[in-house]
Please model this.
Amino acid sequence: MTFLPIIDRELRVAARKRSTFWLRVASALVGMVIGGAIMMLSRVGAFGPSTMGNALFVVLTWLALLVALTAGLFFTADCLSEEKREGTLGFLFLTDLRGYDVAGGKLLATSLRVTFALMSIIPILAVAFLMGAVSGPQYWKTALALLNALFCSLSAGLMVSALSRDAQKALGATVLLLLLLVLGGPAADGIYAHNRGRMFTPVLSLASPAYVFTLAGAWGRSPYWRALGVSHAVGWGLLALACLSVPRSWQERPRRPRASRRSYWWRYGGVRRRQALRRKLLDRNPILWLCCRERWQSIVMWGVSLIVAAVLATLMIWKARYANSPLWIGGWGTLSWLFVALVFLWMASQAGRFYLAARRSGLLEAILATPLSVKEVVQGPWRALVRTFGPPVALLLVVQLVGGSLAYRATWGGGIPHTWSNLAALATSAASTLSTLASLAALAWFSMWMGMTSRNASLITLKTIVLVKVIPFLVIYFVTMYAIAFLVILPQTMRMGAASGPPVTTTSTNASGTTTTFAYTATSSTMTPLFISLLMTCLPAVLNVGVDLGFIALARSRLHSTLRQQAAGIFGSIRGK
Model:
């Protein structure tokens, strides 16, 4: 018998896929385009090669870290649970295969593409080394930290998938596990050091792949190699748990009646709620009633919104006690961005569930054979999303508006009229809130469209996030940078010779949570930092709303015009086989 036969087969299959080749080519092209855009900025201002090389290295490495840490969500979180739902995983264990054969084969089959994509960016990072921005050890340490983060993320997703059966639960559990793995250790060490009044000492932080990444650029002595070893050992431990769990968790065991009733009540509510919902929605739109039956999504969203409100209240209390503390601005910006990103991920994964499940179960074919129109079939899931997520999302947006206004107001220093700063803070926060609302709508519509065209839930989420948020974010970010460069930095550079005072810095956080620091001369107008902040926030927000409206129109048009044709093609191809 061939040693590790599934791994051998999966590697051969993955090597022959076109996506394996084109994904690494696309990844390298994205890195080259970002690097070229950053290099072009050096032609505008008085930036040396070391400064631009450092900017290139920081932008590309943080983007690569984000890709590495989220790879487990999209590539391994549903790989084994999907086999369980289809009933094919058990056939593998009728042979002499062991758990490490199956888990290792799935890990390599799903991770080969993203591994090649990440490795294609690493040579581009060497440009920063040639420009004198980073040292050789820093470059290689960063590359190892990125590969380690990718391995830990994929292992975490595989371990969760080995224990799960439902795609949405697997995705949610993977998110929680990755947050615990990445942020849990540093947060615990930071809280312990603050309560004890001591310096930060990494203990649990050594297991965090993100902490290993931050140590790669540290000067002097640092526990980099110790943290890398601990984090890598955690990744191997998660992989070992997946190998041990797969042979023992693929069987579908019957639930206890009491546990089954409790689970049904949690998911659908009591008898009165189900009857009232049926009377209210069934005659209005059967698809709307069908999508609104489950209530746990609304409970989860309410929980997230209330947590964000509690975080804002806590930071406001902190601001009242420590008026000059930077924790207010940095803490709210980071936590707000994190929670909004989780809501975006949740919307992208939930909106396309109905069409995916209806395609697999044959329900879509039955629905299209009824007198229901295509408009009702399309509007039903959308109205269900508005009904389910509308109130908690409204609370989240109000909290974001209030917190953003206070944070923007605290960002600007003296010299700016009080009335102007208040109006500008309200305008920037309103622009960010409007951008968030438009993004949620675009993610919902695009995910519904992807639910009709994608093979599984992971692909729906991945396509929606990448096409609706990631690619537009990169384009809008560089458009904003060039606007800042030509409208602010270039004129200031031309007048720099006449400047009589030292440069003054201003910090701005845009609608996507990205913080940027700019310098202007003391002879500039006192309104310059206000203008930069408005431009950094409102311009991306306006562009983002325009892009989101375009995605909404495209997805709506495609769903209304091709729903029956796509369903007929799907079922026709199944019958043809």
